[in-house]
Amino acid sequence: MKSTRLITLALSLILILSFALTACSSAKLDKELEINISVLNGTTGFGAAKMISDVKEEKAELNYKFTVDTNPANIQAGLINGDIDIAALPTNAAAALYKKSNGAIKIAAVNTLGVLYLMTNGESVTSIADLKGKTVYCPANNPAYIFEAIVEANGLEVGKDVTLQTLTEPADVQKALASGEAKIAVIPEPLASAARAAKPELVTALDLTAEWEKVYGENTLMQGCIVVRSKWAEEHPKELEQFLKDYEASIKFTNENPKEASEMIVAAGIFAKAPVAEKAIPKCNVVYIDGKEMATALDVFFNKLYAVNPAAVGGAVPDSNIYLEK
Prior knowledge:
Layout: H1 2-25, E1 34-40, H2 43-46, H3 49-56, E2 63-69, H4 72-81, E3 86-90, H5 91-100, E4 105-112, E5 116-120, E6 135-139, H6 142-153, E7 163-167, H7 170-179, E8 184-188, H8 191-198, E9 203-207, H9 208-216, E10 224-229, H10 230-235, H11 237-256, H12 258-267, H13 274-280, E11 286-289, H14 291-308
Parallel strand pairs: 1-2, 1-3, 6-7
Antiparallel strand pairs: 3-10, 4-10, 4-11, 5-8, 5-9
């Protein structure tokens, strides 16, 4: 009798646990929750184009509200004050914001690897060594830090062997190339494709992603990422998980369907010209990398930028809590 009671009790406990696990695993997504997402125009926004199109066509899995901005500072402010839940940012801007906000954001995934190319207008450059004694135009901030890290790894010193002329915006560098003011310049895609389309005599001399990987390792040049407010991630783990699945699928679509994706990119206000975007997509290194692979590679990237200029990552290399646990 006692044995029978024990068996009955054990079966009851198993059923209770089974129901509890089933309830947890089938917890429904909150489809009414408004999820505010902001992406930058340009390459870091490319991967979201299909998701934005799905929202417009009412095909999205969740209640996504997208905005496209031209200024990273606006997105950073929105993340801090809670107006934005998820955003695409340059990786170094994410590192600086993590420190500034005392950990209020986390990096969930990398969405863009290297997008920088060294272009020439009447100059012969086949290696970094050829830049000795030359002036190179470059967008300020992240591109300049990356370029300096590559130059220094090749035994040259910016300010001594190579003159670096930084301009505020990548578009300013494109204009300098077009006018002939710049003979050598670092420029990101898709502006590099736009520059070649406008001035066919321009030469893409070096792929700076390849130059970076020669000295620092494969897939360690990570320029763009998806960040999420730490508090929001804690409160809405299932919705975040669904967003990341949708976002990964959107990136896959962009890479596999550049023509259709380029039209979505223009419709979303992420870039102005579909033919240029279509040509640029294969060179934009739009990816989805998360988890340990992301954290390991970003640690390399952040340390290299810090060595060039601590301000590049907000004055300190971020600790491991910056990464969303997977």
